[in-house]
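I had to read the description of the data format several times before I understood it. Each protein is reduced to its one-letter sequence and a matching series of backbone shape codes. The format is easy to grasp once an entry is in front of the reader. For illustration, here is how one protein appears when written out as sequence plus structure tokens:
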Amino acid sequence: MSDVKKIATRESYGNALAELGKLHDDIVVLDADLAGATKTAIFQKAFPERFIDCGIAEGNMMGVAAGIATTGKVPFASTFAMFAAGRAYEQIRNSIGYPKNNVKIGATHGGISVGEDGASHQCNEDLALMRTIPGMTVICPSDDVEARAAVFAAYEHEGPVYMRFGRLAVPVINDNPDYKFELGKGIVLREGKDVAIIANGLEVAESLEAAKMLAEDGIDAKVINIHTIKPLDEELVIAAAKETGKVVTVEEHSIIGGLGGAVCEVLSEKCPTPTLRIGIKDVFGESGPAKELIAKYGLDAKSIYDAVKNFVK
């Protein structure tokens, strides 16, 4: 994938906000002293009068965003996933989720690929936390095209939305004329009959590479991109399970409570199917280069290939 265009989805977030700002004057962007890293500085430069730096006070920022939402504006509250889902969980739950305020949360630097910042900043639990908040829509886009589309869809959606973006530049895989983003609808990227690989975030590109390797061994893998974890595309998940008889979930998140948990909940109730969850096990991360961490924690294409091959055989 060396010749494929790569861009970090946090960049996509900043660019999309600036594009939205030109189209809609009701957008207000908030940040917690990380505008350079979250890329909201792109919006700040274009629309300084609609940008609020709340300082290193993430809980307060969520409260401010909730208040702004009650005026009819559409606030995008932005910070690292660890500080959004983690530090400000209670404010998101009680000030945004409970009253159903129309706040969009842009959480960058999610997952193990935060790299050298280490375990304290590698939030592998955010999707699980946000899934439990009633009425919260949860999105984890796979590339630049999808991340931009997710921001626009979040604006159009009435209600709280949590979007997870990454620090690491990832391949652009959705740059085709047939691509369509729809909240709550998964996308079949590759047909297959032997096993269904369901992935999100940067693991979609890795899963596609793994599927190519599996094909060389005669294993026909279906690859599905589930960008919206909540609401989950249950119909597609069940159909894939029935078609292949085996399901593998792949995510840059704990296997507890994220995509793997969501898929297993649905299958256990409606279509019991042998399922393998690939993701961060019940451990914290560590400091190191992002790509090396992805490989060490079994999230690169080769590791996925090995795990799926053993599972199918």
